[in-house]
Specification:
Layout lengths: L7 H10 L2 H11 L4 E5 L5 E3 H17 L7 E5 L4 H12 L3 E4 L6 H11 L3 E5 L3 H10 L6 E5 L12 E3 H5 L18 E6 L9 E5 H14 L7 E4 L6 H5 L3 H7 L2 E4 L5 H11 L3 E3 L2 H13 L9 E5 L5 H10 L4 E7 L3 E6 L13 E2 L4 E5 L21 E6 L12 H7 E2 L2 E10 L5 E6 L4 E3 L2 E3 L1 H9 L4 E11 L3 E10 L6 H10 L11 E4 L13 H13 L7
Parallel strand pairs: 1-11, 3-4, 3-5, 5-6, 6-7, 10-11, 10-12, 12-13, 13-14, 25-26
Antiparallel strand pairs: 1-2, 8-9, 14-15, 15-16, 17-18, 18-20, 19-20, 20-21, 22-23, 24-25
Length: 553
């Protein structure tokens, strides 16, 4: 390749130094005195220098035990100081941090351990039974197993496990020597998909992905060193780690409030106490915050914005949040593999609520035709008429590696020519606002008509006596499938007849889309990040239909 200048110094510098860790270390040097993290549970505060020192203790301990470049550090931790230490320490020694859901079953945990073959396993003592059983089931045995005990309760530690505090107590606080060659394409983080449709898959993220994911947040909030963030969702999720979580916050030189688990009372107290400027959480969490603020108002004047992801933001809910919490509501849509890729800014709302917004600055999102036997090409788009449905595809070279770890089949199914095929069905309009209708996997086919649950759910959720619902399909000998709705009532007087009449009168769904079956329940299955698990309800619905538990009147 012919260049008009000598690019050697640029290439050498860029390819070895464009890393998230170098951004964090710049802040350690510039703002060593400045607050980096606050643990809500203990009220302990770390400056950037102190956070670096504690991360160094873990890095040096692991390095002493032979953990090296490309080794995997598997963690099942709540949002905690130890999660932060692990995120930073792994990158300091060239290792790959692999966060996973702490709510996984032993079998699911064992499967991830077997697939990723970690050198180190760090878990929270609250899930000790899961950890022990998972290690029994897994053919791979990590060399180092560390238990984090933030509850400080007396425990009988399993044989071969060591407490985190004991593991790092004699370790050095100095930066570990760099005895490996950093590279921009090095994998530094490995996430697991949330598993809404099956077994979680390993999603590799490299140095460029981490840096430019941080840049994306810094640009879209925008985020500065004067801000204080708190992500109310788990950090093992990409939205938890990257949207106002450790990745952008510590890269920007801002401060991070660590929230172990969500509680609306504690959240609002934190906003007031620590002058939080940005909160992140799913829409259902925002509902609980609004309820709390109405009954027990806190001083939340410091808030610059609240970012929500995981599901569409309905218009009535958006107006309520803007009135009670902050006028600056943001709503993002994306995936574990690609972070967020469309965005609704405050100036888009509430008018465009219900949509997923338009492409983020460095991304491109299109709606393409769906075929049974092949993927549509990126130029095979559906009309931008707000009506014609197709598959949502994403191009985001800054935030994705476009693959799964050791899973060629899944990679081939999901990625092609620099595009990710999400499996989500949606529409777009002439201004390229995307509206998500549902997943291909969740699609109901009744009398040859394609029905997507999200649209029906939005209608049902507007009923004043409905708290939440999930819509799925059940077998029907004449239709192929019929629509069934699982509903959490907000009012105990709610009846099936009311809902049927409500759907009949609704202008937003057709007769064939209206549920024929209902079941009232007290809870619905969600992932830890708030996404509805339609596949679980679909399995349950088949059994409930056979058992006569689904109601028609």
């Amino acid at each position: 390749m012919y260049l008009t200048y000598d690019a050697e110094m640029f290439k050498k510098t860029f390819e070895s130094e464009f890393t998230w860790l170098n951004g964090f270390m710049r802040n350690v040097h510039r703002f060593g005195y400045k607050t980096a993290a606050i643990d809500q549970a203990t009220e302990k505060v770390w400056s950037y220098s102190e956070l670096n020192n504690d991360a160094n203790k873990l890095a040096n301990a692991m390095k002493k035990d032979g953990v090296k470049k490309n080794d995997v550090v598997f963690v099942q931790l709540f949002n905690s100081p130890q999660f932060l230490f692990g995120y930073i320490a792994s990158q300091k020694i060239g290792a790959i941090i692999n966060p996973a859901n702490f709510n996984l079953s032993p079998g699911e945990t064992a499967e991830i351990i077997g697939h990723n073959e970690p050198k180190v396993y760090i878990y929270d003592i609250e899930i000790v039974d899961t950890a022990v059983k998972a290690l029994e089931l897994s053919k791979h045995k990590p060399d180092i197993v560390i238990a984090v005990n933030n509850s400080l309760k007396e425990i009988n530690l399993p044989e071969g496990h060591i407490l985190f505090d004991d593991y790092v107590k004699d370790s050095l606080t100095e930066n570990p020597p760099i005895d490996f060659e950093p590279y921009i394409y090095d994998e530094v983080v490995r996430l697991q998909t949330s598993g809404t449709t099956g077994t979680p898959k390993g999603v590799p993220l490299n140095n460029i992905n981490e840096v430019l994911s941080a840049h994306d947040v810094i640009m879209h909030f925008p985020l500065s060193l004067q801000d204080v963030t708190m992500n109310m969702s788990p950090w093992f999720h990409r939205g938890g780690l990257h949207s106002g979580g450790p990745t952008p916050t510590l890269f920007a030189g801002a401060a991070l409030v660590i929230l172990r688990t969500f509680n609306p009372k504690i959240c609002m107290e934190c906003v007031e106490k620590y002058s939080i400027t940005f909160l992140t959480g799913v829409p259902s969490i925002l509902t609980l915050l609004a309820n709390r603020q109405e009954k027990h108002p806190a001083d939340i004047s410091s808030l610059k914005g609240i970012i929500t992801m995981g599901s569409p933001l309905e218009k009535e809910a958006c107006i309520r949040f803007q009135k009670i919490l902050t006028p600056n509501i943001f709503n993002g849509y994306g995936t574990t593999e690609s972070f967020w890729n469309t965005f609704l800014r405050p100036f888009d709302l509430p008018e465009m609520s219900g949509t997923a917004g338009r492409s983020c600055t460095d991304d491109e999102v299109r709606i393409v035709n769906v075929y049974d036997d092949r993927k549509a090409g990126p130029d095979d788009v559906v009309p931008a008429d707000g009506k014609t449905e197709g598959e949502i595809i994403i191009k985001c070279p800054t935030k994705s590696t476009f693959c799964y770890i050791k899973n060629e089949q899944a990679t081939k199914e999901k990625f092609a020519d620099g595009w990710m095929y999400t499996g989500d069905i949606g529409t777009w309009d002439e201004k390229q606002f995307i509206t998500v209708a549902g997943r291909k996997d969740d699609m109901i086919i009744s009398k040859g008509e394609n029905i997507y649950p999200a649209r029906i759910e939005e209608v049902l959720n507007c009923h004043p006596k409905v708290s939440e619902c999930i819509v799925t399909g059940v077998p029907d000998s004449t239709r192929g499938e019929s629509v069934a709705a699982y509903v959490i009532p907000k009012d105990s007087s709610l009846t099936v007849a009311e809902l049927m009449e409500y759907c009949k009168e609704s202008p937003n769904i057709s007769k064939y889309q209206a549920p024929r079956y209902y079941r009232f329940v007290t809870e619905l299955p969600h992932t830890a990040t708030g996404k509805k698990q339609h596949f679980k309800i679909k399995e349950q619905a088949k059994k409930d239909l056979a058992d006569g538990l689904l109601l028609r009147k």
